[in-house]
Amino acid sequence: MDRKNLVIVGGGSTYTLGIVMSLIEEKANFPLKSITFYDIDAERQEKIAKAAAIMLEEHYPELEQFNYTTDKAAAFKNIDTAFIQIRTGGLAMRELDEQIPIKHGAIGQETSGAGGMAYGLRSIKDMTELIRDIRQYSKDAWILNYTNPAAIVGLALKREFPEDNRILNICDMPIAIMKSYADLLDKDVWELVPEYFGLNHFGWFSKILDEEGNDLTQELKGKIINGDFIPTDKEIANDESWIQTFRKARQMLIDFPEFLPNTYLQYYLYPDDLAKKESPDNTRARQVINGREKRVHELCDHIVAQQTTKDIHVESDIHGVYMIRAAASLIFNLKETFIVMVENNGVIANLPNDALVEVPAMLTNNGPKAFAVGDIPTFYKGLIENQHASEKLIVEAYYEKSYTKLQQAMTLNRTIVHAPKAKAILDDLIEANKDYWPEFK
Length: 441
Ligand code: NAD
Ligand code: G6P
Ligand code: MN
Description:
Blueprint: E1 4-9, H1 16-25, E2 32-38, H2 42-59, E3 65-69, H3 72-76, E4 81-84, H4 90-103, H5 113-137, E5 142-145, H6 150-160, E6 167-169, H7 173-185, E7 193-199, E8 202-209, H8 217-226, H9 240-255, E9 260-261, H10 266-269, H11 271-277, H12 284-306, H13 318-331, E10 336-343, E11 356-364, E12 367-370, H14 378-400, H15 403-412, H16 419-432
Helix pairs in contact: 1-2, 1-13, 2-12, 4-5, 4-12, 4-16, 5-6, 5-14, 6-14, 14-15, 15-16
Bound molecules: nicotinamide-adenine-dinucleotide, 6-O-phosphono-alpha-D-glucopyranose and manganese (II) ion.
Nicotinamide-adenine-dinucleotide binds at residues 9-10, 12-15, 38-41, 44-45, 85-88, 90-91, 126, 130, 146-148, 150, 171-173, 319.
């Protein structure tokens, strides 16, 4: 395999160091010539980059170059692949996205409901600009986007770049859930073969098979219902909020036993319970600032102070490995199967063609080839159509600067429903986002 050039956009992200560790562990599967970080926040990026440089020097001597920059031309020239993980408005705006709906009795969440809308309307502009700039310098690079809300960003990118078949929107939640399934079944996660359908952060596993084709679904459901369903990937295993979220997936399976739910469905199926439980002073953004962000920054400071990574454990995480192996499958035409987002076009037969569905697809150097799902039952079809309509209206509202469509999107959304509540949340979010959103009329 010839060695490739990778740019990580959002080099200052809290996920970057984990990706670097995963790139080290995966170097045989995804051999690299160069890694470049790009970010608009030089200081935030440098903190991560200085630690990454030491780690790469010690663990990736084959790498010819490691650079970090805030210059797009330097970052995007001659690259084979880009990972995009930006957060427009940062964690500070995430906190407002979560606090404002809570004030009105609705859930406050990064990618779901009103918070997801707010974040989506901020992300579209930056994401569009970034794709244009990457294409100016590297027209054939594979772009893996996992910037959130991936469902809304993905729809907007399809609209902006309908002919560009080298942009893949991807999420780590299905594989993080599968990691817990694998541990319950005493298997390696990569041995499991999933059947899955839905939208991003809005889907279900209909089957889990092993490599020989044995159906493990009933055994797995039994183990979840009779046991304790918790996260097991090391990045989230000890996080109280993720533990509670995984436990709620067990509840969903008890209430709706047909399929195994994505954890994000809790916000849509139990919006009242979750809205009541949340406190505006300690939303998830605050927990991330005091948790993952602090932990990663302390680790970077430690590595830089010691000038070595010898006393730390350099270990991949499922998030990083998933993105890396998906990129390798695209670039090296490995034809491996990953759950990713694709334009529906009949994959789920009874859903609209223009929906961005999340399904298993074979990743080839011609792009993702999704496996047909067929018709899905009425309950799931109804839920998904409603959610798709809400997300589609957000994207249309952005381009048409339509206040009415935002109001419709929020009223349709299962986390809100009550029309006056939708309007009140929207008006507060407009005020909070005036530096980021277009002006809605
Ligand atoms: P973060 O705020 O720590 O990192 C984001 C970085 O992006 C920051 O360093 C920021 O300066 C930079 N940035 C912002 N706008 C930019 C722009 N226009 N160009 C270049 N850089 C820019 O956030 P985080 O918690 O590490 O998450 C990063 C992103 O990854 C978020 O969008 C998050 O939702 C997403 N994410 C997605 C998945 C998934 O499964 N889809 C999983 C994990 C994280
Ligand atoms: C999962 C999802 C991501 C989301 C992240 C939030 O990994 O797939 O899309 O961004 O969780 O996690 P956090 O710890 O930041 O709340
Ligand atoms: Mn996700």
